[in-house]
Each structure stands twice: as structure tokens, then as C-alpha cells.
Amino acid sequence: MTVTTSQREAIFKRYAQERDKRLRPDGLAQYVLLTGRFSRYAEDPYTPMIERDPVTDDVTFAFVGGGFAGLLAGARLKEAGVESVRIIDKAGGFGGTWYWNRYPGAMCDTASLVYMPLLEETGHMPSEKYAHGPEILEHCERIGKQFGLYDHALFHTEVTEMAWDESRSRWRIRTNRGDDFTAQFVGMGTGPLQVPKLPGIPGIDDFAGHSFHTSRWDYAYTGGSPDGAPMDGLADKRVAVIGTGATAVQCVPELAKSCKELLVFQRTPSSVDVRGNHPLDPRWFADVSKPGWQQRWLDNFTANWEAFGGVSVDDELEDLVQDGWTDLARRMRDILRALPPEERSAERMMAAFEDADIEKMEEIRARVDELVEDPQTAADLKAWYRQLCKRPCFHDEYLQAFNRPNVRLVDTDGKGVERITEHAVVVAGREYEVDCIVFASGFFVEFGISLEERAGFDPKGAGGKSLSQHWGEGMRTLHGIHVHGFPNLFVVQLGQGAALASNVPHNYVESSKTIASVVQHALDGGFSRVEVTAEAEEGWVDLLETHGRAFGSEECTPGYYNNEGRPAGRKERRNFGYPFGAVAFFGLMDEWRRSGTFDELRFE
Ligand code: NDP
């Protein structure tokens, strides 16, 4: 498709109009935490709490968070010979995101072979190209068992205090279960998208029917199971889903099969491309899974996704993974390759990107027309923004669900649900009576809530300074992991590291290697304390600020990618990743670990 100037102008005009409709003065303040009067929404519906005695011992490593970050760190520490590793999680088991998000239809959106960590170590072959939630959760449990991580784990436990005791070179950790123990090293992997948010819609408290957030799916009410058993409890129910992000895209097709009536309340449509899920063939996998395969696949995915981070546009780059993300990147790359080298000015390349994006989005919009029978519904389901303004979605049943007679899209024309009453959801003055509301309203990201709200505690480092004080002007770390003034503490996060959002686990795969190698170096050398120097931390923050990549564009329709469309201040920009990209960052980390000298850290 050749994009003419007038087409381009018309499309960008529409993008701007749709964006402006959605800008709100309250930005992130439109959302509420699941605390106080909303705390019932946060309860664990999956595992009963088991009474236990408080622990008061000493462990070598305590890690807060039992999702992929904690499991990977735990596994690598165990491999490095660290026996006493304790993982603490507020959930009733391992899994993190996959523990909580058991909504029907949940599956990974990045190919399983790169999304599910430690496949080579565990010998597990994912059953599908994009594995479903129960299989991923089971894999988390498999990792926990194989690496002995259940031995010291504390579940249904929230850390309330974590303070560095200089006299003993130990962290003292206290929890809401009365535990009071010490650890030589601590890690924090509390997740980038784990604090659920509810829309602060007027009247939300007045609703007398049943309601829950997608990350606490109430199967006791809906019937069915995460494995796909029919949700019989909904056969006579009118159900509202509020939200049409990546979660809704996955659970709407399942709800559509079970509800008497399903009303999907939409503020901004998702872009929904082809998924093409299929079972994996064991013979094919046997051929793929030669020693070292998963790291090769991870590196290949990331190289393809970035394509320009360290790999020149013209180099041949095999795409091993071939999922929705690498397909998107390949398309961009092909467009650039088609430009003769002498025409590759920054301006021309940007224009080529824009055209590639328009082409892709036109394809996605045309797909809606192909699949959705009712023309008005189809028009409403079309996403009018650049593809990476919002999380791209991939699904083969979502759009078709709106052809069912029991399913109805209620488009709010960018305004959102107006009000909730005792029995209804109100849009543009019209009441839609429902028995149940499912909030598919997403999660807070790093900004918008405090560190304590996000992690549940605020570590106190040397001299009693809290991490939130240290980060008062924005995050400060070396490599996103080490923090000056917080000896023996490791943060596992995307910010100030690779910030690879297309395959989050790859970030953790690399962080876990770093943690294990630093801890091993400290233990082998008989050091009791390791801390990044103030100069090294300052240098890293400077580098990030000097070469900082653009924060999600303000031109985009608002969402958590761009601070709800509000200008990003210095503080928000500090959460961003290594300016030269994930491939370069992982390469740098690899070299840093191999050097074995860890120059920026002081071991004592
Ligand atoms: P999102 O934040 O992406 O979506 C929340 C939805 O709620 C949006 O559609 C939002 O509209 C809507 N909303 C908020 N307030 C209102 C309101 N007042 N009225 C009507 N609608 C409202 O959350 P998700 O849980 O869908 O996804 C979060 C992230 O989790 C994803 O982006 C993805 O990174 C990850 N995820 C990954 C999956 C995977 O890999 N398989 C699956 C699911 C999630 P608006 O867009 O206008 O703000």
C-alpha cells in the first residue's frame, strides 16, 4: 500500500481527534487502589490461608516476589550453591502475574518458547505456541519444586518492614504474619503490573450485584475453571465487562460463550491482530531444543524486536521465534531496507516508519470489517492510533465474539462509563441493567502510586534512609539493580535496565544471572557487604538522562504507556531503560559479569 500525503494527513487528524476525546484532567487520579473500602476486591479467591507460626531465623537470601523474577533469581542462586533462599509472596503460591491472573482465556502473548523461563533447565515443552495460563502457572510451580524454592518460602505473607542492620551486616525483615527474620542479601521483584486498579467511576460503591477485578476471578460465582470448563453460573446472568485492554481481549470470547447476555463497555478499542496459536509438535521441538537453545531464542527474539539495536538494518537476521512481535519488527525493518542507503536520513526513516505503521493499522482496521458483521460495531471496534501507542493485542476469537446474539459492545465514545447505580452501568444517560460487573481495568505502573503502595513496604538502607527518600527525585540505580546506600539489596525491574516490554521475562533472565554472580563473588571472597559506589550510580543516572529515549509519546491516545497523555517529568523519565536498547544492555551486562571484577561495586 502506498500512503498518499492526503491519506496520511486524514489519518493523523483522526488520531489526534480520538486522542483529544480521551484526555482527562485527572490523569492517573481517575483510578483507585484496591485498599480501604475496595479491599475486598484484592482478596485471594484461589488458595485458603494456612495458619503457621512466625519465622525468626536467618537466611542467606530473601526475595520479595514469587513470580518469574523471584523464581529466576532463586533458581540461579541455587545453581550457584546458595542453599538458603527464601521467597516471600502475598499470594498463596508461586506464579506472580500467573498466580493472580486466572481469568478465562488467559495466555501469553509472546511465544511460549521465549516467554516461559527455564524451559531448557526443566525440560518442559510448552504445549502451544502461546501457552494458556494454567500451563504457565504449573511451570512456575515446576521451577519452584525443581530448585527447592518451596523449602523456605512464605506465602500469603506481606513484608511490612525491611531494614539494613549495619552492626550485623544483615537485613531485618518483618511481615504481616508476625515473622521477624534476617537475611544477608535481599531482592525485590514485585512486578511492573501487579497492583490492580479500579476505575473511580461515580457510584461504583452503589452496585448491589456481584463484581470483581479480572486478576481475582471469582469462579465460585461464574462456575467453570481457568482450564476452560464452561462457566455455568453465568447462564442466566447479564454481565458487564468494563475495559477492552489485553485482558478483556482474552476473557471476552470465553464470557461470550457462557453469559446469558454480555455487555462490553469500551472507552478505547485495542488493536487486535492475528494470533495464529497452535499446538507445538514434539518432533519439531526435539529439533529446536539443542543445548543452549533457549538463550539463543531469547537473544534472537530481542535482536529481531529491536532490529536496530546493534544490528544494522541490512544484516541478515534470522527470525527463530516468528510471533506477533517479531512480525511487527520485521515489517518495519523491511521498509527501512527498501530505502536506498543514500536516502536513509533521519527524516526519511521516520516517514518510512510512519507509513509502515499506517499500513499495519489499516490492515488491522480492515480485519475488523472482515470479521465483525454489524457495521456500527465494526466501526466502533477500530483502533485509531499508532500501533505502539497502546499494548498491541493478538487474538483469533475476540472480534468474532461480537457477532454472537448475546454479546453487545457499548462504546462510550472515549468518555468511559459515566456512572454505576445499584443495578446498572450508565453510559450517555442510558442505564444498562446487569447482574455482575467484571472490571478489566488493568494495573498501576511504576508512577502514579508510591513505592510503598506498589511493594507494600519501603526498605530502609544504611543510616535509616528509605528507598523512597533516595528516589525522591526519581529512580537512582546502577543497571536498574544496585542502589547506593542499600547494601546487599538487588532490585529486579525493567526501569534503568533493558526495559524490554515485548518479552518481560528476558529482563529477569539476565538480572538473575547478575544477582547470582555478584552474590557468589561476595560469598566466595568472604565479604559480608556489597554496595554500588555513589559515583557509579550517579554515572548511570547521568548516562540515562543525557541519552534518554523518548517517553511514550504525548501524541498518543492516553494510557499507561504515556502517563495517561500527561507530559512526562524528569521523575517519570528516570524509569525508562538503557538508552541504547535491550540488545546493547544485555551485551553490556554479559561483559560486566564475565569481567568478574564488578568495578562499580565495593565488596567489604
Ligand atoms: P489495560 O490497562 O490495558 O486496560 C484497562 C481497560 O480499562 C482499558 O481498555 C481502559 O480504557 C478501560 N477503562 C479504564 N477506565 C475506564 C472507564 N472509566 N470506563 C470504561 N473503560 C475504562 O489493562 P489490562 O488488564 O487489559 O492489561 C494490562 C497489561 O497487562 C497489558 O497491557 C499487558 O501488558 C498485560 N497483559 C498481558 C497479557 C499477555 O501477555 N497475555 C494478557 C493481559 C494483560 P482506556 O484504554 O481508554 O484507558
Round the Cα radius of gyration to an integer and report it: 24 Å
- Class of the domain at 58-194 and 445-603, according to the CATH hierarchy? Alpha Beta
Q: Within the CATH hierarchy, at the fold level, what is the topology of the domain at 58-194 and 445-603? A: FAD/NAD(P)-binding domain
Distance between the termini: 62 Å
CATH homologous superfamily label of the domain at 58-194 and 445-603: FAD/NAD(P)-binding domain
The poorly predicted ranges are none
> Proportion of β residues?
5-15%
Bound molecules: NADPH dihydro-nicotinamide-adenine-dinucleotide phosphate
Helical amount: 25-40%
Number of strands: 21
Q: Give the name of the CATH architecture of the domain at 58-194 and 445-603.
A: 3-Layer(bba) Sandwich
Which word captures the global form?
A: globular
Number of distinct helices: 20
For the sheet with most strands, the description reads: 6 strands, mixed
Q: What's the average pLDDT?
A: 93
The helix-and-strand class reads: alpha/beta
